[in-house]
Amino acid sequence: MVTMRDVAARANVSVATVSFVVNGSKPISSATTARVEQAMRELGYRRNPVGAALARGRTKIIGMLYPALQRPLSGTVGGFFTSATARARERGYQLVLWPISNDSDETMALADTGLVDGVLLMEVQLNDSRVPALIAGRTPFALIGRTAEPEGLAYVDVDFAATVSSAVATLTDLGHREFCLVTGGTRAGRFEAHGPAERSRSSFLTNMESAGLRGSVRYCSEDSSEGRAFGRTFRDEHPETTALLLLNEHAAPGIVIGLRDAGVRVPGDLSIISLGSSSHMAGMADPALTFMRSPADELGRLGVDTIIDRIENPEAELAAVLLPCEMVPGQSIAEAPSRG
Amino acid sequence: MVTMRDVAARANVSVATVSFVVNGSKPISSATTARVEQAMRELGYRRNPVGAALARGRTKIIGMLYPALQRPLSGTVGGFFTSATARARERGYQLVLWPISNDSDETMALADTGLVDGVLLMEVQLNDSRVPALIAGRTPFALIGRTAEPEGLAYVDVDFAATVSSAVATLTDLGHREFCLVTGGTRAGRFEAHGPAERSRSSFLTNMESAGLRGSVRYCSEDSSEGRAFGRTFRDEHPETTALLLLNEHAAPGIVIGLRDAGVRVPGDLSIISLGSSSHMAGMADPALTFMRSPADELGRLGVDTIIDRIENPEAELAAVLLPCEMVPGQSIAEAPSRG
DNA sequence: TTGAAAGCGATACCAT
DNA sequence: ATGGTATCGCTTTCAA
């Protein structure tokens, strides 16, 4: 390995000078600079980030912590990751996706040791043991998602309440009065754990109540075959429902297929809006679903900005960003069928 | 930050002793060990991996290099990543997904600097500039996928030739004689670049020729709406074709929808096999597609084993693993329609 | 403008 | 079984 010493020797300067040239941290005469740069080129020098990190105490690396074993990477995460990567690069950082088990020890083991300058926590649970662990440590962090009580934390998240309200409003305008919300998320019934599901659910129920609508909440696991099964029995179990809100983009195409198998026409008999999806996923169903676009790209960028701001300016105010999903027209909503 | 010195001072031992206790690298009396461990606990000591990496020259971190900006994370990559993560952990390594631009400089900048002990290169192109860059460096690496001439490289990949042959055989047994292969991959017509597409294509054409079958090759970008458009016009453009091989799982559901829109019945008029897919994706189409299951999990594990073997035993033979996809029955193939 | 040298935190060799 | 200490590669203060 070519080190700074080698470069320094070759250029007849000290390692300090080489360092100054490499980092631009001090003015060096252009003649010397040229000599150093040539030596680097000739030797194929590349600075060793481990040495730099140790000396500096910073790595310019942000760890995006993801419980890969519990939640396989899906399309949405891909969107986050891609835009977050781009943004980090713009701001002079590297972003790496760091798979951790969903557990506080391992979180700390990584976060509090200088390998990363800051941490972006994904798949945040409503009651997430990793958060107190991070608070106890001294690594800056920010959340994508949020806990039940996110005050005092830096986070960016989807505004599920606004998203649900807007979807419900669209459908009530079309005359719908009987709703059903289908969540996915971690596990059946575990609303406590999964923020998106729980927040959507409570917003949904509030909307129902305040507008005098009827609404039920169901769970379906995030898989196409589960979706099919769900769709096939739906009409029998919810004969009155005319409007379906899906917070489960992976099951969505299967649900539509199951509904059709059972003779339910979409949107003739049942209108569907997919919450927090993408054009690509919504287009996999037939008819193409009307959906609320998940602001994944924006959240990725904002998440990176948030964590970098925390790293570089710990005193600054905590970011608390909520972004709603915006409606994208599709073929899956229509006026409520007149009661037979 | 609590350092070994702090622990050593507290336990009245030298830093060397603490290091031996932490790493189990030398026998230490149980009394001393206990004192050291207590001191660590009391102080909340956590070893700094940056310091360790510098001293040791190894980090126990494997970088999974992925061109996130060019190829957004999809389901298949998620499978790789998840199983690779698990396997790395079993073998005492950390795996991180490192987004890089698809470019040799950046590859080297990461790989050759001691931050990672080894590198797993994903989305390998047939002619991939990152490979010579890695060869020139001295960081062990392995490929998931392979270049056009992978001799002398360690790799694990899908056996596309076998997969295509097996799919074709299944369909010829059902009486099909007119085939079409639909690839996805990087860009229209750029077979040279995308290994899976090119290998499938050449195997496909060979199969056609040797069995006296007729086969065309088409491209469709990996998106559901492109798939719909493709499906809608397919029959007009390929009126004779009765069997479709899809190497494009993201477009597949859209293609099936487009076909139905155009009045083509699957599998009555047209049989479809999706190559390199998963049960989840295949289930998003209606009818559920017969598919060749991508061995993503196995490849993830094997990829990690391969790179770790190279790290720990550079002299060992180079792994060159090809795994075929295995057929999973669905609803999308049938006997060839009798000619009208 | 440049250099000498003291760290950064941990490892591991050589003594004892 | 322990301890002293040089070392890993780089940064940065202090002097020159």
Q: Quick one: which chains have the greatest interface?
A: A-B, 54 and 54 residues
Oligomer: homodimer
CATH topology of the largest domain in chain A: Rossmann fold
CATH architectural designation of the largest domain in chain A: 3-Layer(aba) Sandwich
Major pleated sheet of chain A: 6 strands, parallel
Question: What share of the residues of chain A does DSSP label as strand, in percent?
Answer: 15-25%
Helical residue percent of chain A?
40-55%
Number of domains of chain A: 3
**What strand order characterises the main sheet of chain A?**
2-1-3-4-5-11
Structural class of chain A: alpha/beta
Number of helices of chain A: 13
Radius of gyration of chain A: 26 Å
> How do the SSEs of chain A run, as a string of H and E?
HHHHEHEHEHEEHEHEHEHEHEHEE
- What is the tally of beta strands of chain A? 12
* Coarse morphology of chain A: elongated
Low-confidence stretches of chain A: none
CATH class designation of the largest domain in chain A = Alpha Beta
Q: What is the CATH superfamily label of the largest domain in chain A?
A: Response regulator
Intertermini distance of chain A: 80 Å
